Structure formats: structure tokens, C-alpha cells
């Protein structure tokens, strides 16, 4: 409750201040702050926060302050830079042109439904016992006994399998409709870990009795009851990030949650924890820096420098930590 009141106070004060600052004023301030930074330095700059949770930029190698803390929700250069000047004006700075686009912040819009209904996904005329694939190996049609089907199948022992839902239970079936042993629609939820290497194939699961974790096709389980499969991550970050734009999963790393909040960041390829929340600090988000614009996170993974946004509970400030667990803070 205390954190929420602090955030409300900061945003209210920022709004009053914004009445005296015009869009052209903000553009001039942003362009002055960032235009003097050398191009070869941009990708190694890391956002930091002062005791008032205002953000600036720090050189990750020298730990020197490059831009003083006067912003909110400052991102990494990707290669353009996004941020919030005073809680009211959002900006996007282009280092190539040294120009900034400025616009007023607006209330976040509700997420739009993808529009993929059962009618869109099923071909009722198809007489199949399992599912059929498109040329690019997406699930196109499936048996009418299933209420839904995962769009992307996975390959196991030379055959394609998919996650299906029947009578509100999750299972794994082949193209012929036969379920895999141990996955015959006994789970309340199954999610394929697409980063797990074959032939293990790990799945995030939830059982009827509330047991959750990861399980592979051999029946081996990991991280049992260490996180909650159905937990929604967006509800846990609102008191920290007024205009959060970062993602919760990048390039094989994902933040997992319990009822108490973020448990930590899991390496989905190697199935191990990278960093966990502690009594002193919480994991908030995953972010990245890059020398160029990233069009596809999976394909361009080698060009990413991953960072984890943490929250210091005692200081009530945020800071970034890299993949080597080096912290960037004052």
C-alpha cells in the first residue's frame, strides 16, 4: 500500500509539473541529453534508478553516469531509445537522426483477443482422428472431439505431436489421434517449452490437485510446486512500473511466479534458475540491449544483451542485473 501511495504521489506531482512543460521543451531536453552520446557507446548503456526512482543511463563497463536520473521507465537502446520524461510525455529517440518523437501518454489499452475461435481453427468437414498439418508444419484441422489444439506441434521420435484439450483436460496426441503414454488427458494445463532440446521435451503442467511444475516425456519432473502455472505476471508489476513495456520472456528465459510474486528467472533451455527473488530483492522484468533493431527475438538472439530488472525492497528502488549477475546501481 505504501509503494502504491508513493507512485501515485510521484505521478500526481509529475502531472502538475507537465502543465508548465511543453512538448517542444521535452523534445529539446531529450535531444540534448542523448545526442552527445557516441554511437559506439549506446549498446553498453544500462538504465539505473536513483532513490526517487527517476531513471538515467550508466556505462556498464566503467560504471560512470552518462545521463543523470531525470526520466521514468527508461529503456535500453535497441538501437532507438524509449522513455518517459515526467510521467506525462513519452518519447522515442533515434540516435541515427538525433531526433526525438514526443507524445502524451495515454491509458493502456486492454489486450485484444486474437480472434482465433473454434470455428476458425476447425475444419468440420475433415474426417480425421488426430490432426493435420499445413506445409509449414502448423496444425490446421483436428478431430471434433477436441475443444482446442495447440497451433505449433513438436517433433518426437520422428513423429509430430500436439497438445489438445478434451472435456477441459489437457493431453498430448499424435497425428493419428493416439495419446502419448502418461499424457492421456489427465492434466488441468499443459504448455510446451519450445526451448527444451529434443528428445526430452519439457512441459509446464498443472494437475487437478494443484501440483505444478515441469515434466518431460520420460515422466521426470522439476521445480515441483516452486511456482504457480496459472499465475498472471502482469498483476505483480503494477506498483513498480507505471508504463512497463518490457516482456516477461526473452530468448529462452522466463519469469515464473507464485502467489507471493516473482519466484525468479528460469533458463528454459538448460532448465535451471538464473536468478531468484530473495528477502532483499524481487525480480520484475527481463529486458535487452542491442546494436540494431531486433525484428525476431528467436532468430536474432545472438545480438541481444539480456538484463533482469530487480526491485530493492529496502531502498525501494529498481536496478538492472546482467546475465553474469552483475548489478548496475548507485
Task: Compose a concise summary of this entry.
This protein has helices spanning 2-18, 23-35, 118-121, and strands at 45-49, 55-59, 65-71, 81-84, 89-94, 99-104, 131-133, 139-142, 148-149, 154-156, 159-166, 169-174, 189-192, 202-206, 212-216, 221-222, 249-250, 253-258, 261-267, 272-276, 281-289, 305-312, 317-322, 327-328. The chain has 330 residues and is mainly beta.
Q: What is the topology?
A:
Blueprint: H1 2-18, H2 23-35, E1 45-49, E2 55-59, E3 65-71, E4 81-84, E5 89-94, E6 99-104, H3 118-121, E7 131-133, E8 139-142, E9 148-149, E10 154-156, E11 159-166, E12 169-174, E13 189-192, E14 202-206, E15 212-216, E16 221-222, E17 249-250, E18 253-258, E19 261-267, E20 272-276, E21 281-289, E22 305-312, E23 317-322, E24 327-328
Antiparallel strand pairs: 1-2, 2-3, 4-5, 5-6, 7-8, 9-11, 10-11, 11-12, 13-14, 14-15, 15-16, 17-18, 18-19, 19-20, 21-22, 22-23, 23-24
Describe the structure.
With 330 residues, the protein is mainly beta. It is 10% helix and 36% strand. It has 3 helices and 24 strands. It has helices spanning 2-18, 23-35, 118-121; strands at residues 45-49, 55-59, 65-71, 81-84, 89-94, 99-104, 131-133, 139-142, 148-149, 154-156, 159-166, 169-174, 189-192, 202-206, 212-216, 221-222, 249-250, 253-258, 261-267, 272-276, 281-289, 305-312, 317-322, 327-328. Strands 9, 10, 11 and 12 form a 4-stranded antiparallel sheet that branches. It has a 4-stranded antiparallel sheet with strand order 13-14-15-16, with no helix packed on it. A 4-stranded antiparallel sheet has the order 17-18-19-20, with no helix packed on it. A hairpin with a 2-residue loop joins strand 10 and strand 11 (159-166). The chain starts with a helix and ends with a strand. The model is unreliable at 14-19, 107-126 and 231-248 (pLDDT under 50).
Amino acid at each position: 500500500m505504501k509503494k502504491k501511495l508513493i507512485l501515485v504521489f510521484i505521478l500526481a506531482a509529475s502531472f502538475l509539473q507537465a502543465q508548465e512543460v511543453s512538448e517542444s521543451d521535452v523534445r529539446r531536453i531529450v535531444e540534448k541529453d542523448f545526442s552527445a552520446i557516441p554511437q559506439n557507446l549506446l549498446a553498453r548503456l544500462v538504465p539505473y534508478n536513483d532513490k526517487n526512482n527517476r531513471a538515467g543511463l550508466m556505462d556498464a563497463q566503467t560504471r560512470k553516469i552518462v545521463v543523470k536520473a531525470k526520466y521514468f521507465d527508461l529503456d535500453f537502446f535497441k538501437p532507438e531509445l524509449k522513455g518517459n520524461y515526467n510521467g506525462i510525455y513519452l518519447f522515442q529517440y533515434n540516435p541515427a537522426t538525433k531526433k526525438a518523437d514526443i507524445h502524451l501518454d495515454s491509458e493502456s489499452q486492454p489486450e485484444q483477443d486474437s480472434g482465433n475461435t473454434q470455428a476458425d481453427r476447425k475444419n468440420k468437414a475433415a474426417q480425421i482422428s488426430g490432426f493435420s498439418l499445413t506445409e509449414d508444419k502448423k496444425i490446421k484441422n483436428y478431430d471434433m472431439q477436441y475443444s482446442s489444439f495447440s497451433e505449433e506441434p513438436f517433433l518426437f521420435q520422428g513423429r509430430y505431436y500436439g497438445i489438445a484439450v478434451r472435456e477441459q483436460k489437457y493431453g498430448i496426441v499424435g497425428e493419428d489421434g493416439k495419446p502419448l503414454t502418461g499424457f492421456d488427458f489427465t492434466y488441468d494445463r499443459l504448455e510446451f517449452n519450445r526451448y527444451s532440446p529434443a528428445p526430452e521435451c519439457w512441459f509446464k503442467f498443472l494437475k487437478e490437485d494443484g501440483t505444478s511444475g515441469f515434466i518431460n516425456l520420460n515422466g521426470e519432473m522439476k521445480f515441483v510446486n516452486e511456482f504457480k502455472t496459472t499465475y498472471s505476471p502482469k498483476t505483480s508489476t503494477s506498483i513498480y512500473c507505471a508504463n512497463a513495456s518490457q516482456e516477461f520472456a526473452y530468448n529462452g528465459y522466463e519469469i515464473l511466479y507464485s502467489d507471493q510474486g516473482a519466484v525468479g528467472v528460469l533458463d528454459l533451455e538448460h532448465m535451471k534458475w538464473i536468478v531468484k527473488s530473495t528477502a532483499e530483492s524481487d525480480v520484475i522484468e527481463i529486458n535487452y540491449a542491442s546494436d540494431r533493431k531486433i525484428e525476431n527475438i528467436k532468430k536474432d538472439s545472438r545480438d541481444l544483451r539480456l538484463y533482469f530488472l530487480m526491485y530493492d525492497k529496502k531502498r525501494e528502488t529498481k536496478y538492472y542485473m546482467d546475465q553474469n549477475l552483475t548489478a548496475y546501481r548507485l
